[in-house]
Specification:
Rossmann fold
Length: 503
């Protein structure tokens, strides 16, 4: 299935507007939350993040969660069948819900119901001054928006509040908002210190509004940020508190669960300088697209991705704690590993178990480094032996039971799939991941993507496709390579492979 078809099919599975029931839920012990989404800044993929948010809140068995993709639902009187409204939208260059929706939402909260605001929801209702009374703090476009997306520490500042009782400070990868304005009295629950100006900014707070309650957190920029178990737990507890649910007795199990949650794996993507014509060997665009796919995937699990351009990180120390390193670059003398000492650095990192991925021309080692590539990734493109025609070729999974092939299907692409790759004879470590019949005039079964696991447990992967940036729009092509990145990082590969979307 092509990428556009996949997105349309997937989007079609989401209701444009859930049918709100005529009456309240028949089980009084169950509270009902409605996530309102559907409009946002182009940088926020609400169709990806809303299901993650729903899972976080719905992890509390006392809460049922529905999602609506049209903020106009706020004008409907039957929103009062819900106990909590979760705002997960920002009316970016689109008509905001009108006066009836505003009055309805205000009456909903002040009358005794709950309100939760997520990330850029602080910027909803920009032309409604009273929104500040509901949100506590609102987006001020005259302030600096946020620190650069990256890792920072969230400090729990109130350990006695029902929402944060038993929680500890934690690390997250997100946008640290510096743009909230307002002076309404609130209970500050968590803050974070900006790496830009050294000031502390609110990351979670709560307050009463009339007879109702409000929980507001600017955390949750993308799937990875919302999937952070600490952030997910904050939104679960915040929603429960606004729904007037009592804290779970003895919240230590929840804290223990967070403590035992898997840490994000770290993937470092090293992109060479673009070469060839536009759309070919666009390594920087390829690298940023891979990062986007991993960061926004709803099922890739906790992963931290970094992109370093121009062939090698300015600070090689960023590689020290990498779980896998991905090369998207030219090869031979232009390979980032051609410079002295770098291949030794990679050897040291893989000796401790770090994974290594080489894509397309990056499978061509610098002169004299062929044996290293055989050891590290299992194969390489050899000058005057390997072939690299551009052709339209069908590529098929070569090892259906291998984790990299989860969800993989045959696909056809116009690409420069290298073949006649040099492998060691009878290398038992080697697994053919993708194969193709090449060349067209005299076809033979050739391996165009492969994987190996070394005796020390380190994993390597090579793939010869990827000459054209456009091929990253092919979902089967993307899935194989994203699966490979997770596998080399020793992360879990989802049963049906990594789900992802592109612009």
């Amino acid at each position: 299935m092509q990428w556009a078809t996949l997105l349309v099919a997937w989007a079609g599975c989401l209701p444009l507007l859930v049918a709100l029931p005529a009456g309240a839920d028949s089980t009084p012990a169950v509270k009902r939350a409605l996530i309102v989404t559907g409009q946002d800044h182009p940088g926020h993929k609400w169709r990806l993040t809303a299901p993650v948010l729903a899972d976080a809140i719905g992890a509390d068995p006392r809460i049922e969660v529905d999602t609506v993709e049209d903020p106009a639902v706020l004008a409907r009187p039957d929103i009062n069948d819900y106990d909590v409204i979760v705002l997960h939208f920002m009316d970016w260059e689109q008509p905001a819900p009108g006066p009836e929706a505003r009055a309805n939402l205000k009456g909903f909260v002040e009358g005794g119901k709950g309100l939760v605001l997520v990330h850029f929801a602080c910027g909803a209702f920009q032309d409604w001054p009273e929104f500040g009374d509901l949100a506590g703090r609102v987006w001020d476009p005259n302030l600096r928006a946020h620190d650069p997306f990256g890792e920072f520490r969230v400090d729990i500042t109130d350990t006695e509040h029902p929402i944060t009782r038993g929680l500890e400070s934690f690390q997250t990868v997100d946008e640290l908002y510096t743009c909230l304005a307002g002076d309404l009295p609130v209970d500050m629950l968590a803050t974070a210190r900006s790496k830009v100006d050294g000031k502390d900014y609110p990351m979670a707070f709560a307050f009463s509004c009339g007879k109702g309650r409000v929980f507001h957190s600017p955390l949750g920029h993308d799937v990875g940020a919302l999937a952070n178990p600490h952030v997910a737990e904050l939104f679960r507890r915040g929603c429960a508190w606004t729904a007037l649910l009592p804290p779970v007795p003895d919240q230590a199990p929840a804290a223990a669960q967070l403590e035992n949650a898997p840490s994000p794996v770290k993937a470092v993507i090293i992109a060479g300088k673009p070469s060839h014509s536009e759309g070919e060997h666009d390594w920087d665009e390829d690298a940023n697209l891979v990062k986007h796919c991993l960061d926004t995937s709803p099922n890739a699990g906790p992963i931290k991705t970094e992109v370093h351009l121009n062939g090698w990180p300015e600070d090689p120390g960023v590689l020290d704690d990498a779980d896998t390193i991905v090369f998207l670059s030219d090869g031979l003398g232009s390979h980032p590993l051609a410079a002295g000492g770098r291949i030794e650095t990679i050897h040291n990192l893989t000796d401790r178990g770090c994974g290594l991925v080489c894509l397309h021309y990056a499978v061509a080692p610098p002169e004299g480094k062929e044996e290293e590539f055989l050891e590290l990734i299992g194969g390489y493109w050899e000058k005057d032996y390997s072939k690299n025609p551009i052709s339209t070729t069908e590529v098929s999974p070569g090892a259906p039971d291998h984790p990299i092939c989860r969800g993989a299907v045959a696909f056809t692409a116009r690409d420069e799939f290298y073949y006649r790759i040099r492998f060691r004879e009878d290398d038992e470590r080697l697994v053919p991941i993708m194969t193709a019949m090449l060349p067209k005039n005299d076809p033979a079964l050739e391996v165009v993507a492969w994987a190996l696991e070394r005796t020390n447990g380190a994993r390597g992967f090579g793939s010869t496709g990827g000459h054209f940036h456009e091929n990253w729009r092919s979902e089967p092509f993307r899935k194989m390579l994203l699966n490979a990145i997770l596998w080399t990082a020793k992360a879990n590969v989802p049963q049906n492979g990594v789900q992802s979307s592109v612009e």
